[in-house]
Amino acid sequence: MGKFKIYTKTGDAGQTSLVGGTRVPKNHARIEAYGTVDELNVYVGLLRDLLEKEETIRELIKTQENLFVLGSWLAYDGKKKVALPELRQEDIDFLENRIDEMEKTLPELKSFILPGGHTAVSTCHICRVVCRRAERQIIGLMENNEINPLHLTYLNRLSDYFFVLSRSLSLEFRITETLWIAHKD
Fold it and tell me: In angstroms, rounded to a whole number, what is the distance separating the alpha carbons of residues 161 and 35?
């Protein structure tokens, strides 16, 4: 295999190629969507770096792999037949099972929670909100593009996972959750 250069100079005028070859502006809705999924993947990596529990680290690595799968599909123009890996219902089922397992140990939630208390907890919340942004961008793409609805479901469940993981980590690290109290003036 030859040496790979990181720069191609083909994007210097503000365009890039989708998987399949279609050239689009770098602010194209598909680029925004898979760029946000990539941003989420980076934050998941940061979260991994903040944790020591091997089981959770393995879960987050699997999540990062799934985000690469999702990003590949978002970058695909649909024109040429290409072999891309798939997200599966089992990936969603796994998230749901983990959410259910973690919720068994958590106190009942009676108020909104203010993010914070520990760097890993805050990073979970960053992952959650970036995940929600990616979800909104994909909903926008669905208006004019064929998008696998499983991809949207995966992101929806993943954001729930990050919320519950933040609560689970607060419990694990013995951090008192700060509840939001609405002030009535």
Answer: 21
Closest CA relative to residue 161, chosen from 100, 114, 106, 109: 100
One digit per residue, the tens of pLDDT, for the chain of length 185 reads 567 666 666 656 676 665 666 676 566 778 789 999 999 999 999 999 999 999 999 999 999 999 999 999 888 877 788 888 999 999 999 999 999 999 999 999 888 999 999 999 999 999 999 999 999 999 999 998 888 999 999 999 999 999 999 999 999 999 999 889 888 77
- Taking the C-alpha atoms of residue 108 and residue 143, their distance in angstroms, rounded to an integer, is 37
> 134: closest CA among 23, 14, 42?
42
- Give the pTM: 0.90
DSSP letter at 10 equals T
Q: Is residue 33 a contact partner of residue 141, using CB atoms and an 8 Å limit?
A: yes
Domains, the chain? 28-75+88-103+111-179 (1.20.1200.10)
Q: Quick one: angle between helices 119-142 and 29-49, nearest 10? A: 160
Find out whether 167 and 106 touch, Cβ atoms under 8 Å. yes
